[in-house]
UniProtKB/TrEMBL annotation, chain A:
Annotated spans, Disordered: 1-24
Organism: Jiella endophytica
SMART domains, per the entry: Ald_Xan_dh_C
Protein name, entry field: Xanthine dehydrogenase family protein molybdopterin-binding subunit
Single GO term (MF): oxidoreductase activity
UniProtKB/TrEMBL annotation, chain B:
Domain of life: Bacteria
A molecular function (GO) term: FAD binding
Organism: Jiella endophytica
Entries under InterPro entries matching the protein: CO_DH_flav_C (IPR005107), CO_DH_flav_C_dom_sf (IPR036683), Diverse_Substr_Oxidored (IPR051312), FAD-bd_PCMH (IPR016166), FAD-bd_PCMH-like_sf (IPR036318), FAD-bd_PCMH_sub1 (IPR016167), FAD-bd_PCMH_sub2 (IPR016169), Mopterin_DH_FAD-bd (IPR002346)
Boundaries of every FAD-binding PCMH-type domain copy: 1-222
This protein's UniProt keywords: FAD, Flavoprotein
Name this protein carries in UniProt: Xanthine dehydrogenase family protein subunit M
Transmembrane segments: none
Flavoprotein keyword on record: yes
Family annotation (Gene3D superfamilies): 3.30.465.10, CO dehydrogenase flavoprotein, C-terminal domain (3.30.390.50), Uridine Diphospho-n-acetylenolpyruvylglucosamine Reductase, domain 2 (3.30.43.10)
Length: 755, 352
């Protein structure tokens, strides 16, 4: 790649911005309320749209009281399958890799509870809401299909986003047969919902055949194409403004029907239209982490080494679309084993289609893998950490490739030390705190792939010595604005205060997807490359100009630092960017860059972030209430651009893991299939009081292969490892393996009470 | 939300007159009522806003030594009133274990008593619910009912009363002061709430238009201040409704329990006074044996209403524990996690 980032001497010489724990650039805007989220936009003549959701899980809408809704004061239009204006695209089509079949009032079928069955548009939000209620739908209802035992399984072709449903090596049956001990266990994980703080929202406004959308979006430029396809206009006619996202977690990467309907209503009524979901409307149409049933078989030899590992996941998806939680694939890259099988089956339920949710596959898969490994360690009579070290993978178990970098041993060691793991009794139920509560310690390995997508960026050096950098990236609260800005400033050899950073707008160069923990690496590489490209052009001006102190330095090279170019072999000879531009009579000089993985290193190396999580829990022996009392995570994830933000991501991931282990689950009525806790009072996520003393250790790791900057990702890995660590700690405290998440009080009450 | 009329009365009399109209509802802080209206579970035609009424916002000690809490006193203000919390620590602890700081800052005493069940089928307008729509059936039966009642339920309704505050009030024998068109009346809290029977829609003795003006704690309740606790088991450390809770107050003299108060939350359609358990405790030496016997007595009549048999076992353990905690003495300071299983515990209370 000609525009790959040139690194003098082949090593990363990094500027002074990266590595600094800067606070978030958007922090003040957010805490003062000055940040405008999508729903904060109120253009003139704005109309409000509200979808009516189906209350049955399967069947047909036979009646809607459109007259009653229309008669409600303030209601402007009621859109149903009867009168919906045409769309340019069939709702079963998929304009992008991240498109799902969705509902845009194409017919009267109901495929899940909460599915939009009409759109009411009104002068006020209240009128639209009441209009939607007044529709009082009637249905021809069919029984809802739900539950792993209630429906037949099928063999899927792919899982996740295009991953193979079955991967393996070696002979698992032979490995199991040869084992001296076998662990065969079945676990279940429930449906979980992203519940981003900011509900999905869109404000759509047309101007001729151009449309401007204020909507939170994790993949801006790609989404312009997707929206355009629905309306038969060129992608460049769609502008998406998404400066802030109040959390996305995967649920704002995929376009859902409601957005399309709001845009359609805006065109039909020739007025701007806003649609903002209520919390309960986020349980169905905008994705979730699909439920899984996972069966694991592990074989262990006399030395405590794996002889075989078989991970079979049955993933639940909707009746009309596939997103299958690729949970078994979490077993592909962690532990060494001669025989390995990761396979998936699927079931179709009458639910909204699942989608990627923070650490898709890895979160659920690692929860079970790490629990099963703990069971295996105990069966082998080994300390769980020792057991993992015996099964340490020196090369990627699935592909046999060398790792690009893997500081997992250091993670284990640093984490164990900080936690005080040594001396942990092997048997459960051995430890008590001073008041007699049961105490348990558990651990888990954390792992997440380190992907890169495609991104582009521009950098412009200006005559006054400042610069502008641009990429259509997305800050979901993870701190992208800050970290990307730091990288961009380094690419330009400028202090961050001299660099203006533009992002969050689809008119900028494609910043790629904020997902897969690859945004910083991808967009960051593009920004850095754009900066170095601009500097290269600037250098050309200087070294070719007799009047410059850098004249003739072409061979030895120049270095960019603090707004000046220095001769590489003589730091006394330098010139400021502004001087060079002024002499050349230029008002600015621009550079462009791309970020993408180098295919050669991708071919040769397996690339992952690693970590180790240690948890202490306390369980009240009588009441069964569980509390995590300590969490330590040590993570090696390449170069850390901003230790404060990276740690926050890891803390957040680990807290998410706590929620997975002990709290989160959608409760479906077994008859209707409706979710009975579609609100955040009853759908529990961790609150402050749940979150214990936590430690995050950033283990240094130099990864020369992932990308020239050495950046991996930290957004998702914190969940992996943590769920298993907590579940294992609960077992260690009580001797109870719930084997069903979330682990709750009722599970604990099966422990006989001491007299 | 349906269109409704909003009335802001200037006096209790005006409020009562306004609320006498059919399909009216009193509005406290709205933390419960407005949520239910937004979801369409309740659709009152008129809201009578009580929050601007004078004289209902104070906590006073009356000449007879009883304490009177105005219906508009905020949950947080009551719990943080130092004098009140000293005299009735179990009430303060129960209040502080409920909801979140923000909600407690807003929620009123009257609203807390009158808050509706968290039964999800009550909130979900697509479900059959006898409480929301008398005679329509009860979808909680045979549905997702792990948190439903094990005591006092009927074939028509198995929902639990969600309040923590009311459990403590029930243990201490509070009296509800009611005002209506026909004047004032007083009802002991144990008689204020009704069991579902055949009329689950009728949750209290309040008649149309009647409002709660105050709640009174009798003077003798303050005598129990040295040994009282609230314990609430829930699915996360804070900000969750009780799966099972209990308020206990004891008088212990010369090594024997001379008076016992016990009420249960999260297990019954109303805050549940466990009189048999109280009786079983009197005369006994405080200790594991007596507490276990009381726990058995408290749940002697319990039966599962669905997938909730575990709550009977859990409830017994909660009772045994709260009694042990109360016997150990009211703590000097309110624990940082009030009523939590993870608040500091006196020694010997946990079963090892
Ligand atoms: C997320 C969440 C979590 C919660 N967790 C808990 C918890 O853990 N424990 C707990 O105990 N509670 C909990 N609550 C409930 C909370 O305590 C109640 O919402 C609150 O006490 C209601 O008070 P209010 O003033 O807002 O009442 P409103 O919502 O205004 O009214 C509630 C009801 O009382 C009626 N009413 C109000 N005042 C009077 C009066 N003076 N006379 C007659 N009727 C009246 C209203 O008509 C309405 O029917 C929680 C609530 C929420 C939203
Ligand atoms: S338990 Fe009571 S509140 Fe719940 S659905 Fe049945 S009748 Fe309604």
């Amino acid at each position: 790649m000609s525009d790959a980032i040139p690194m003098p001497g082949g090593r990363n010489r990094f500027g002074s911005n990266s590595g600094q724990p800067l606070t978030r650039r958007d922090g003040v805007l957010k805490v003062t309320g000055a940040a405008t989220f999508a729903a904060d936009n109120h253009p003139d003549r704005l109309l409000h749209a509200v979808t009516a959701g189906a209350t049955v899980s399967r069947g047909r809408v036979t009646f809607l009281d459109v007259e009653a809704a229309k008669a409600h004061p303030g209601v402007v239009a009621v859109i149903t399958p009867e009168n919906r204006p045409p769309l340019a695209m069939d709702p079963d089509e998929k304009p992008t890799r991240f498109s799902f079949r969705t509902e845009v009032l194409q017919d009267d079928t109901v495929r899940y509870a909460g599915q939009p069955i009409a759109l009411v548009v009104a002068e006020t939000l209240e009128a639209a809401t009441e209009g939607a209620r007044l529709l009082s739908p009637r249905y021809e209802e069919e029984p809802a299909r739900h539950g792993f035992d209630a429906v037949d399984t099928y063999e899927p072709e792919a899982v996740g986003v295009g991953a193979p449903a079955k991967v393996g090596k070696g002979d698992v049956e032979a490995g199991l047969a040869a084992a001296t001990r076998r662990v065969e266990v079945r676990y279940e994980t429930p449906g979980q919902y992203h519940n981003a703080m900011e509900p999905h929202a869109i404000v759509a406004e047309w101007d001729g055949d151009r449309v401007t959308l204020d909507t939170p979006n994790q993949a801006l430029v790609m989404s312009t194409g997707a929206f355009a396809a629905w309306f038969g206009i060129p992608a460049e006619n769609v502008t998406i403004r998404s400066p802030f996202l109040g959390g996305g977690f995967g649920s704002k990467a995929i376009i859902f029907g409601g957005q399309v309907l709001a845009i359609l209503a805006a065109r039909m009524l020739q007025r701007p239209v806003k649609l903002a979901l209520r919390r309960d409307q986020m349980y169905g149409p905008v994705g979730h982490r699909g439920a899984t049933r996972q069966e694991m078989r592990l074989g262990i030899d006399d030395e405590g080494r794996l002889t075989a590992l078989d991970h079979l996941t049955t993933s639940a998806t909707s009746s009309f679309e596939e997103f299958l939680e690729p949970a078994s694939n979490a077993s592909l890259n962690t532990y060494a084993t001669p025989a390995l099988l990761a396979r998936h089956k699927a079931v179709r339920w009458d639910i909204g289609t699942p989608g990627p949710m923070r650490a898709p596959g890895e979160a659920s898969g690692s929860a079970v893998l790490e629990s099963a490994m703990d069971e295996a360690a105990f069966a082998a009579g080994l300390d769980p950490l020792e057991f993992r070290l015996r099964n340490y993978a020196e090369t990627d178990p699935a592909s046999g490739k060398r790792f690009s970098a893997k500081a997992l041993r250091e993670c284990y060691a640093d984490g164990a030390k900080r936690f005080g793991w040594a001396g942990r009794p092997l048997a459960p139920g051995q430890m008590r705190d001073e008041t007699g509560r049961l105490v348990g310690w558990g651990m888990g390995t954390a792992l997440f792939h380190a992907p890169m997508f495609q991104a582009e960026a521009k950098a412009t050096l200006r005559a006054d010595g400042t610069a502008l950098v641009e990429t259509a990236g997305a800050d979901m609260g993870q701190g992208a604005w800050t970290a990307l800005h730091q990288i961009a400033a380094d690419g330009l050899g400028l202090a961050i205060s001299m660099v203006e950073f533009h992002s969050g707008h689809s008119g900028l160069p494609d910043g790629g997807i904020a997902g897969g923990s690859g945004h910083t690496a991808t967009a960051g590489s593009a920004l850095h490359a754009a900066g170095t490209d601009a500097i290269a052009k600037l250098s050309e001006l200087a070294v070719g100009d007799e009047r410059s102190p850098l004249f003739g330095a072409g061979n030895v090279g120049v270095e960019a630092r603090d707004g000046r170019l220095y001769r590489a072999d003589d730091p006394e000879r330098s010139e400021s960017y502004a001087e060079i531009l002024a002499r050349a009579g230029l008002s600015e000089i621009g550079g462009a860059g791309q970020g993408a993985r180098d295919p050669a290193s991708a071919e040769e190396r397996a690339m992952f972030s690693h970590g180790a999580v240690f948890a202490e829990v306390k369980v009240d022996p009588d009441l069964g209430q569980i509390k995590v009392s300590r969490l330590v995570g040590a993570f090696a994830a390449g170069r850390i651009i901003n230790p404060r933000l990276a740690s926050s991501q890891l803390y957040g991931g680990m807290i998410w893991g706590l929620g997975f282990a002990l709290e989160e689950q959608a409760v479906h009525d077994r008859r209707s299939g409706r979710i009975m806790n579609a609100n955040i009072a009853e759908y529990h996520v961790p609150v402050n009081a749940d979150v214990p003393e936590m430690d995050v250790i950033l283990v240094p790791e130099d990864d020369p292969y992932v990308n020239p900057l050495g950046i991996k990702g930290v957004g998702e890995i914190g969940i992996t490892g943590t769920v298993g660590a907590i579940a294992n700690a609960v077992w260690h405290a009580t001797g109870i393996r719930a084997r069903r998440f979330p682990i709750g009080i009722a599970d604990m009450l099966t422990r006989p009470q001491a007299a | 939300m349906n269109l409704f009329e909003y009335v802001r009365p200037a006096s209790v009399a005006e409020a009562i007159a306004a609320a006498g109209e059919p399909n009216s509802a009193y509005l406290g802080a709205g933390t419960n009522l407005l949520d239910l209206m937004k979801g369409g579970a309740l659709t009152p035609a008129r809201l009578v806003d009580l929050t601007h009424l004078p004289d209902l916002g104070s906590i006073e000690t009356l000449p007879d030594g009883s304490t009177r809490i105005g219906a508009l006193v905020k949950n947080a203000a009551l719990a943080h009133d130092t004098d009140f919390a000293k005299r009735f620590p179990v009430v303060a602890e129960a209040l502080l274990s409920g909801a979140s700081a923000q909600l407690r800052n807003a929620a009123t005493v009257g609203g807390n008593l009158m808050q509706r069940t968290r039964c999800p089928y009550f909130t979900d307008t697509a479900s059959a619910c006898n409480k929301r729509q008398p005679g329509s059936g009860c979808d909680a039966i045979g549905g997702e009912n792990r948190s439903h009642a094990v005591l006092g339920w009927s074939e028509n309704c198995i929902a639990v009363h969600p309040s923590d505050f009311c459990v403590a009030l029930t243990a201490l024998g509070a009296i509800v002061e009611i005002e209506g068109t026909t004047g004032r009346r007083e009802v002991p809290i144990t008689e204020f709430f009704l069991l579902p029977g055949d009329t689950p829609e009728k949750e209290t003795v309040l008649e149309a238009g009647e409002m709660i003006v105050a709640v009174r704690l009798p003077a003798e309740a303050a005598k129990l201040a040295a040994n009282q606790r609230y314990l609430k088991v829930r699915e996360r450390t804070s900000y969750a409704f009780a799966l099972a809770s209990a308020a206990a107050a004891l008088t212990i003299e010369n090594g024997a329990i001379t008076e016992a108060r016990l009420a249960l939350g999260g297990v019954a359609p109303k805050p549940w006074r466990a009189s048999e358990a109280e009786a079983a405790l009197v005369g006994k030496a405080p200790g594991k044996e007596a507490f276990a016997a009381a726990a058995e007595a408290a749940f002697a009549e319990a039966k599962p209403s669905g997938d909730n048999a575990y709550k009977i076992e859990l409830g017994k353990r909660v009772v045994a524990r709260v009694l042990a905690m109360a016997a150990a003495g009211t703590p000097e300071r309110m624990p940082a996690l009030p009523a939590s299983a993870f608040a500091p515990l006196p020694e010997g209370v946990v079963n090892v």
